[in-house]
UniProtKB/TrEMBL annotation:
PROSITE patterns: GNAT
UniProt keyword terms in alphabetical order: Transferase
Protein name per Swiss-Prot or TrEMBL: GNAT family N-acetyltransferase
Residues covered by the N-acetyltransferase domain: 9-171
GO molecular-function terms, A-Z: acyltransferase activity, transferring groups other than amino-acyl groups
Domain of life, per lineage: Bacteria
């Protein structure tokens, strides 16, 4: 699909073969703060999730795509549309590159660009939003690069360890809707 193909990466649907990849991401405690996860997932639950991944965004209210490097065909991370609201034509967006070595190389930027285009063109969404910790300067810069604007701050929103962290709500309005 050309819509989800960039210069160095492509985005694809989840496959049953992604079980170990998803298992490793969901159970990586170093990213639980970003994904708001508190407990590990077992392979059985992830297998069930993958068996239902065929549902379209109108059924599941989410779309999870795998970010793959074109040259090596390797899986790099995930990009999601979530909280899909077909009445108000909006969805949340989240992105994660699994390995720190894959970050800051333009893969996330290219994936975000592809999903924004897909959401605004094919799904005809009016707006996208993301929730980002005020401390996550890399993600804030990435989303700002594509025109996302901060529209609110959720004070002491997420408990991390023994402290609370603020979270920003950023939004991008489709200029063509």
């Amino acid at each position: 699909m050309k819509t989800l193909t960039g210069n160095t990466i492509y985005l694809r649907a989840l496959e049953p073969e992604d079980l170990e990849f998803i298992y490793n991401i969901e159970n990586d405690e170093s990213i639980w703060e970003i994904s708001h996860t508190q407990t590990p997932y077992n392979r059985f639950l992830i297998k069930q999730y993958l068996e239902n991944a065929h549902q379209d965004i109108y059924e599941a209210k989410q779309l999870r795509l795998v970010i793959c490097e074109k040259e090596t065909q390797s899986t790099l991370g995930l990009i999601d549309l979530f909280d899909f609201d077909p009445k108000n034509l909006r969805a949340g967006i989240g992105i994660l590159l699994q390995n720190p070595e894959s970050r800051q190389k333009g893969f996330g930027s290219e994936a975000l660009d592809l999903v924004i285009a897909y959401a605004f063109t094919h799904l005809q969404l009016h707006q996208l939003f993301a929730n980002i910790s005020t401390e996550n300067e890399v993600s804030l810069a990435l989303f700002a690069k594509f025109g996302f604007e901060t529209i609110g701050i959720k004070k002491q929103w997420n408990k991390v360890g023994n402290s609370y962290k603020d979270e920003l709500l950023v939004q991008l309005i489709n200029p063509n809707s």
